[in-house]
Amino acid sequence: MTHFSAFALVKNALSGHRNWPAQWPEAQPKAEYDVVIVGAGGHGLGAAYYLAKEHGITNVAVIEKGWLGGGNTGRNTTIIRSNYLYDESARLYDHSLDLWDGLSQELNYNVMFSRRGVMMLAHNVHDVQSFQRHVHSNRLNGVDNRWLTPKQAKEFCPPLDISASARYPVMGAALQMRAGTARHDAVAWGYARAAAARGVDIIQNCPVIAIRRCAGGHVEGVDTAKGFIRAKKVAVSAAGHTSVLMDSAGLRMPLESFPLQALVSEPVKPVFPCVVMSNAVHAYISQSDKGELVIGSGTDQYTSYSQRGGLPLIEHTVAAITEIFPIFTRMRMLRKWGGIVDVTPDRSAILGKTPVPGLYVNCGWGTGGFKATPGAAHLLAWTVAKDAPHKINAPFTLERFTTGRLIDEAAAAAVAH
Amino acid sequence: MLLIHCPYCNATLPEVEFTYAGEAHIARPADPSTLSDEEWRDYLFIRSNVKGPHYERWRHQHGCGRFFNALRDTVSDRFITTYKTGAPRPPLLTQETPS
Ligand SMILES: Cc1cc2nc3c(=O)[nH]c(=O)nc-3n(C[C@H](O)[C@H](O)[C@H](O)COP(=O)(O)OP(=O)(O)OC[C@H]3O[C@@H](n4cnc5c(N)ncnc54)[C@H](O)[C@@H]3O)c2cc1C
Ligand SMILES: [Zn+2]
Prior knowledge:
The structure holds two protein chains of two kinds.
Chain A: H1 6-14, E1 32-38, H2 42-55, E2 60-63, H3 87-101, H4 103-107, E3 118-122, H5 125-140, E4 146-148, H6 150-156, E5 172-176, H7 184-197, E6 201-203, E7 208-213, E8 219-224, E9 227-236, H8 242-248, E10 256-265, E11 275-278, E12 283-287, E13 293-299, H9 311-324, E14 333-343, E15 350-353, E16 359-363, H10 373-386, H11 400-403, H12 409-413
Parallel strand pairs in A: 1-2, 1-9, 2-6, 3-11, 9-16
Antiparallel strand pairs in A: 3-5, 4-5, 7-8, 8-9, 10-13, 10-14, 11-12, 12-13, 15-16
Chain B: E1 3-6, E2 11-14, E3 19-23, H1 37-44, E4 53-59, E5 67-73, E6 79-84
The complex binds flavin-adenine dinucleotide and zinc ion (ZN).
Flavin-adenine dinucleotide (FAD) is lined by residues 38-44, 63-66, 70-73, 75-79, 207-208, 237-239, 241, 245, 260-262, 296, 339, 341, 365, 367-371, 417 of chain A.
């Protein structure tokens, strides 16, 4: 693996950039692995990296049905924040935010993490009360979040319309300054390259058809398009397809898969300095470093695996955005797309062991798991390596839907990310 | 946009008139207090989340206001059929394209 540096850049520039080596090799499956991870999104690739780096487990394969990073990792709008309401969530997402801080250096790969601040707008009394509760609860948990008046919000984000006649009046905002965005693809590529350098096999274009269990119930391996692959442990990190995979192991899940869409505008000069979210109108916006406005909203209403959603939702989202930021009414939108997100009843993730020995699951990140990528990957690796959850992910069990100990961010946030 | 046939209005109308109402044919337990925690979990939280033909409920919210059931392929989003509440599930006849 070439170490990326200014020197390497200059050296390769001299030969016209024709001699860069591949960032990871094209791997073919071995007959057996210590750990097989299903799904080469940021979470799965990251888990493979941390298994190798922190736990010395390198006989690992990440198996991907399409191309790595082609799932929700490569389709998301990259909002990173940690100002969730409940103690369990605050610890989980703040753990991830801590890891984001040094990620580019750690991976020797520029993930373009940009702490540009995420501002959540309050448009009604309920929003004001709920966000102020978030701010207080976050501060008690040592999580950065503060309250802004409408004027302060406008100073922070000049395109914002705070006039009294606005269709969605701004009554204040919660701002997390540590929050921001990152380059989604680079996260997948950076983890893939770093994991491959430590001996992990990344096997693409190889759908896992079923998880196989032995007569005693223990996991035995996975049936794939390239044949059976034996594994001592299997970790499913397949986002929207988790139910389908877990069904094959005889486990029914508390999940539903929905399309979540996003769209981008034509690129323009820097005009939008931060990320703004509005839960009340279900829309959020930021500007990528390429200059496109990146816009998203809530999921479509029906479950689906089609990786595309309906136009009514896009129309609703754009209508809301242009009301809040009238400056954008004449922008042209370039493209829209969808991903399939796995949603739990309480809108919190499931990360831990399952009733099947040797089978682990990381799912339920729904509309907001990109921000969790380093944290979830790190904790999944821990859980698989030790066959026991880390204390940060210990509350995020599958059993909570039996015991009733839900982590009800659904009621707390209304819209995710 | 989906086009959905309301079996009560007998009309095929745009999705914006309808709201999705989750998996169909999940009956509320007759005697909830006798349920085990696992049975209660299954009723409240566990969903089939089918990739393929899915039995589901819709409500014609901006029309007749009634709930009805549908069989829709979640890979193509195509409706195979819709039917009135209380009617038996139609069989899974159609072979939709898998992916
Ligand atoms: C439009 C959109 C916007 C979003 N915006 C944000 C945001 O702003 N902030 C945020 O934090 N989160 C956001 N999210 C959510 C976020 O993208 C996900 O929670 C996160 O990327 C999940 O990462 P992952 O690695 O678990 O999943 P994925 O990247 O989806 O990886 C799962 C992989 O498993 C593979 N797979 C599935 N089935 C099989 C099989 N049978 N065999 C082999 N491989 C299989 C898939 O192909 C996929 O590559 C958004 C999602 C979408 C769709
Ligand atoms: Zn009707």
